[in-house]
Amino acid sequence: MSLAPIFSPRSIAVVGASDREGSVSRAVMGNLAAFPGQVFPVNPKRAEVLGRRCFPSLGAIGQPVDLAVIITPATTVPALMADCVAAGVKGAVIISAGFKETGAQGAELEQQVLLAARRNGLRIIGPNCLGVMVPHAGLNATFAAQMAGAGTVAFLSQSGALCTAILDLSLRENVGFSAFVSVGSMLDVGWGDLVRHFGDDPHTHSIVMYLESVGDAQSFLCAAREVAAKKPIVVIKVGRTAAAARAAASHTGALTGSDAVLDAALRQAGVLRVDTIEELFDVAEVLSKQPLPRGPRLAIVTNAGGPGALAVDALVGRGGAVAELDGATLAKLDALLPPHWSHGDPVDVLGDADAERFACALKIVSQDDSVDGLLAVLTPQAMTDPTAVAEKIAPLAAEFGKPLLCSWMGGHAVRDGRRIMNAARIPTHDYPDEAARAFVSMWERRKRLEWLAETMRASARCTPAATSGGVDAIIANARASGRTLLSETEAKSVLKASGIPVVETFIATSEDEAVARAEQIGFPVVLKLHSATITHKSDVGGVKLNLHSADAVRTAWRDIAAAVRPADFAGVSVQKMIRGKGIELILGATTDPQFGPVLLFGAGGTLVEVLQDRALILPPVTREIALRWIAETKIHKALRGVRGQRAVDMDALADVLERFSAMVLAERSIVEADINPLVASPAGIVALDARIVLHDARDADAVPAAFCVC
Amino acid sequence: MSLAPIFSPRSIAVVGASDREGSVSRAVMGNLAAFPGQVFPVNPKRAEVLGRRCFPSLGAIGQPVDLAVIITPATTVPALMADCVAAGVKGAVIISAGFKETGAQGAELEQQVLLAARRNGLRIIGPNCLGVMVPHAGLNATFAAQMAGAGTVAFLSQSGALCTAILDLSLRENVGFSAFVSVGSMLDVGWGDLVRHFGDDPHTHSIVMYLESVGDAQSFLCAAREVAAKKPIVVIKVGRTAAAARAAASHTGALTGSDAVLDAALRQAGVLRVDTIEELFDVAEVLSKQPLPRGPRLAIVTNAGGPGALAVDALVGRGGAVAELDGATLAKLDALLPPHWSHGDPVDVLGDADAERFACALKIVSQDDSVDGLLAVLTPQAMTDPTAVAEKIAPLAAEFGKPLLCSWMGGHAVRDGRRIMNAARIPTHDYPDEAARAFVSMWERRKRLEWLAETMRASARCTPAATSGGVDAIIANARASGRTLLSETEAKSVLKASGIPVVETFIATSEDEAVARAEQIGFPVVLKLHSATITHKSDVGGVKLNLHSADAVRTAWRDIAAAVRPADFAGVSVQKMIRGKGIELILGATTDPQFGPVLLFGAGGTLVEVLQDRALILPPVTREIALRWIAETKIHKALRGVRGQRAVDMDALADVLERFSAMVLAERSIVEADINPLVASPAGIVALDARIVLHDARDADAVPAAFCVC
Q: Which of A274, A326, B28, B411 is the most exposed place for a label (fewest CB within 10 A)?
């Protein structure tokens, strides 16, 4: 159901209305005084509240009510929901606390509330929230001490306390909002509903969110994927570190999933994520004011070298690039500028630059095809007129067709110049390094929109593939013997049946058989523990590499057998020792409780935890996505060939990633899969070891759905 | 000579004094109007300037002059320096531009200026600078439009334009300075002089520097090492990225060295480095107000969970840690707080906390030995009194004996609270994540002071060791044959003579000899190209691993011979193939033009450029420093043992690092040395390959001195 009754109500009932000084209810009533629609106080103990007639119950109002604001004790709320439904109320903001956050009893109460509300599709914000504000509609259904200014940013926050702080700060800084929403414990209305609502709201140009937990991940991500392409969504989510996740969980009782998975999900949904509240609003502002750059190359025009260099450090440090100006551009600048200008980007127009010189330089640079965005930096030097330069530049911005940012550095001297730039919708920053970082965020948004588009294409094509018969048989066999862990050979067979190249591997259950297999394959060979119970074989000394003779195989057999308990020893696997300098990679899949299957690619081998060079992604994976995914790791540089090694066949590697993704999506009984190492060399790609874990057959229903099913 | 005549002059001559409106000279004269000492305008064309008697020359003043401020054209300055010396002037601030920054002619002019000044030990700031301000002395010898406020921060800037911007901003933000120095092109007075001067200046509590180039690295670092232990030095240096280094160089003409080397040098000198101007002043303020933490563990006391989680993310993300509160602390908090408090760090005292509860919680937490620092976070909620909480907490801070930071979040509602905290020297931040980052900077300073102390101890013990006779002979032999590149076997002999374990390696100049050597060593063996010209052997296919038979050795010999030109082929080296799962490391030395010998340690092997897991250090290296150095890399975790591998002998590894450092310091003809891989395993440490380059004998004098010689 629509959220319009909550955010555009014509009439509001305040349940628990009171005029007792210092009460939450009094604060809400006071804030609603300016509301242009009807306000009905409801309280059986009063006849009038703040000059308005007070009703004994919702039913007694006798007129249509769009929104009920509930401020009564938690235990009264389930019954009130029934009243709301009976009275035809369409939306509720439950400010009252005392639910899930207080323990099991409160959680039970919440469920009663939800049950009652769902009978008539009544939508609920909260409970345990500050309320909602819609400044342009004069709606302030909160108990905050102040009303937000009107603007174009919808701010959605899971922390009511943060709301009050941001609100207070926004009034000092003169920042406005299209809506200001404290979501509370998100019993009903969650991120997905809100993102969709403000995606369609004409007053909202960008959506800014403070998250502590993701809630319904599917709903959020599907909504984000729909909205992100038309409006910037910028998110701060606490819990990036495990310690913060614990801190957030302890106070909301919310389940916080893996932060790295969320990161991947947001990237593919086109959502920007920032780490500080300062950046949260800065990025939203910049994105709503200027067009996105087509590439990462920023040209900096400055009247001082040092600030230009500061901007370059920040730019390159974040992944942007300095523009390589075209010869023709340089020639034009040579003609314009004094001889000792910087002759490149940053373009130092020098300390004595007047408005004309500054503006001309910017215009010349803007026409260079190798420039994706512009940053004007001004310091108030003796011969500088910050206001005049701003007046000259501001009207040009619209012509550039490229984003323009600026940093008028200083205080009083640059105040008027900043005001002019701001009025022309050119974002201004105190320092040029901040501006450069903002530019990189714009470029990041462009990249994420590309990820999003590719993800949408992939998802559209993503039909649950039929699983291969061979795979089914192997899995059935493991299940029949009560196992959820496949043996190495079983796992390799599953991969092979999925079209992923594996090194040929035989099981030997006696020493003599191991020798015979080794002689059949040809030396050197590798022996590995074959066990139904032990999965990390090298951790227990269960891997013997590079065996060159029958004697070596016999010694290895005995060493492995001696290293583990007899119950864990079911023989060995024998495989060819792959020679040469292949690059060891890891390709893995896990199942996130919120986001479903998640794939991992990165540097493999035994140092995988030490190097931590990996990138996550949500399937499905297309060729295009596979190549982007590989490029997110450091090891991808090695794949292109270093130190005399030839490059790896990237298409073949991308193909393996695509097949692995398809396997994971088709065979949903796989909850974990690892290929480590996956060896990539110019000769080809081959899986040397594999590990597959099935979900417990009894939990089949608990397996989360894949992200592609929207 | 002392800089007192420049920063505490009793009398000032302004050479080129004028009252022409809009001139630089007029601005300087105007700014000096408030100077309490004597001011003598000098200009042969005027009788009076701004009401002061004007002298035709310095000589005509007839009274002692401490400081001359020079504003005349560049070409006149050399002669004026002679006048200064003749008149007994002891310091000069040359504001005039037109020197080095304009090209060769200007650079020549500078040298004449320096030559004239040095005759009498006259010290010079500039040329091409804004000038200097000393607010508490009423001295403003600049052409800036405003005067800085008085404070305790000495700000030293290599960009005059940045000075004007910072000054303007500081007046808006009400920040003060003990000195405000635009250093210009640092012809005479450089970073070392200034750091020493303000290190001794009682008005200065911290030194904040904006650098574009390092200038005299030895002087700067020696001064920093003396001063950093008593006063915080915080630096921003542009050129962290190569692109910014080019940008800075193009506008100052200054030589910028490798940024990574500077980073290492600053760390060992106890100097903090930040990346943004915002942090530059923030960190300096925090460090000057609160004691340093003894460890990285921060306890956060907050009246809202979300902001606490934000702080934790920033804390852990920067390398700090959440405190594990003691059982006794938890029990005391249980007694104090409502039942659903967070039961851990962050300590959520809940939204209804009054001043008493807030302060008590903070006090309890402060007494926990597992807490190294405190952060109080307040959001202005309905039942919060931000001012009362501040009033209650502020007087306690001094008792804690641990650093206390705070974040009163919001605008008008928290203004008074912030003012109270600021007055009590408790640093306040808009957002808790900023405060957490500031705490980590405090911890970083503590760590750097430990680096500094260890570096001082090491340097005190660092006497140029006698080089081993064996090493000298090898080097002499290479030089005799006109080579600066040692062969692999020569390089290994040098390492061996320096006490570093190397794998035994023989040269074979025929196929039969290679086979004989292999049989002598025992299979498997490694063959590598032996060449006087080619140093990166694996890049040309000159390395053949794991050869198990005479036939394999013969094939390898032929492959290597065929891979290079006959002139580059001088046979092969034969060495044992080291088996097992050692960890490949790299240990290297280069010579930086500014900082002298620099050592590198990190993850080795063929992926060294891809993984980029490395840490730099300036010798000398002690056992203690070696262990810290190793801990700066990611690979050090692998050395402790992962995935069933036993740990490496860290003492043995530290010993190798120490010996390598001693070798580089003792044998200064080595300009480059690399051991890659240095293989570390539980069995020991061994160098498998080595590469050593000597400096060109003709350039012996150009080899920079080591950092330990102060």
A: A326
Tokens of A366: 């803007």
Out of A161, A251, A316, whose CB is closest to B381? A161
The sign of the dihedral angle between the CA atoms of A35, A36, A40, A41 is positive
Nearest CA of chain B to the CA of A242: how many Å? 8
Cis peptide before B380 (omega within 30 of 0): no
Domain ranges of chain B: 293-448, 462-501+581-710, 504-577
Q: Are A148 and A177 in contact (CB under 8 A)?
A: yes
Q: Checking DSSP bridges between strand B139-142 and strand B131-134, what pairing results, if any?
A: antiparallel
Interface confidence, given as ipTM, is 0.88
Contacts of B143 in chain A (CB under 8 A): 382
Token pair listed for A565: 């308990």
Is residue B645 within 8 A of residue B581, CB to CB? The reply is yes
pTM above 0.80, yes or no: yes
Distance CA A248, CA B311 (A): 11
User: Among A94, A171, A158, A100, which Cα is nearest to A126's?
Assistant: A94
* Regions of chain A where pLDDT drops below 50: 250-256, 709
Q: Report the top-level CATH class of B462-501+581-710.
A: alpha beta
Instruction: Spell out which residues of chain B touch residue A245, defining contact as CB-CB under 8 Å.
Output: 309
**CATH class of the domain whose range is B293-448:** alpha beta
What is the rounded distance in angstroms from the CA atom of residue A497 to the CA atom of residue A491?
A: 10
Domain B504-577 has CATH 3.30.1490.20: yes
Rounded Cα–Cα distance for residues B231 and B215 (Å): 22
Task: Copy the structure tokens of residue B155.
Answer: 């700000």
Instruction: Please report the residues numbered 358 through 417 in chain B whose beta carbons come closer than 8 angstroms to any beta carbon of chain A.
Output: 379-382, 409-414
List the structure tokens of A233.
């969504």
Query: A606 vs B643: CB contact, 8 Å cut-off?
Result: yes
Nearest residue on chain A to B343, judged by CA atoms? A250
Q: What are phi and psi of A377, to 5 degrees?
A: -120, 130
What are residue A508's DSSP bridge partners? A572
Residues in A closer than 8 angstroms to B322, CB to CB, are 243, 247
Indicate the length of chain B as a whole number: 710
Residue B159 contacts residue B187 (beta carbons within 8 Å): no
The DSSP secondary-structure symbol of B211 reads E
Element (DSSP H or E) covering residue B133: strand B131-134
- A20 touching B, CB under 8 A? no
CATH 3.30.470.20 fits domain A583-702: yes
d(CA B84, CA A128): 76
pLDDT digits (tens, 9 = 90+) for B1-15: 799 999 999 999 999
**H-type helices in A481-563, by residue range?**
488-497, 511-521, 550-563
Calpha distance A351→A383 (Å, rounded): 7
Q: Residues 442-481, chain B: which have Cβ within 8 Å of A?
A: none
Q: What number of residues does chain A have?
A: 710
Task: Please state, in angstroms and rounded to a whole number, the distance separating the CA atoms of residues B290 and A220.
Answer: 44
Q: Map tokens 């600066």 to a residue.
A: B484
* Nearest-angstrom CA–CA distance, A276 and A363: 34
DSSP A121: T
Enumerate the H helices of B498-622 as residue ranges.
511-521, 550-563, 608-611
The answer to whether A421 and A378 are in contact (CB under 8 A) is: no
- Of A390, A385, A386, residue with least CA distance to A404: A390
- For B432-478, the pLDDT digits (tens) are 999 999 999 999 999 999 999 999 988 887 665 556 667 888 998 99
- The stretches of B337-431 forming alpha helices (DSSP H) are 355-366, 386-393, 397-400, 415-423
Residue with tokens 């970082």: A437
pLDDT (0 to 100) of residue B300: 98
**Residue B418: CB atoms within 10 Å:** 21
Nearest to B539 among A161, A344, A644 (CB): A644
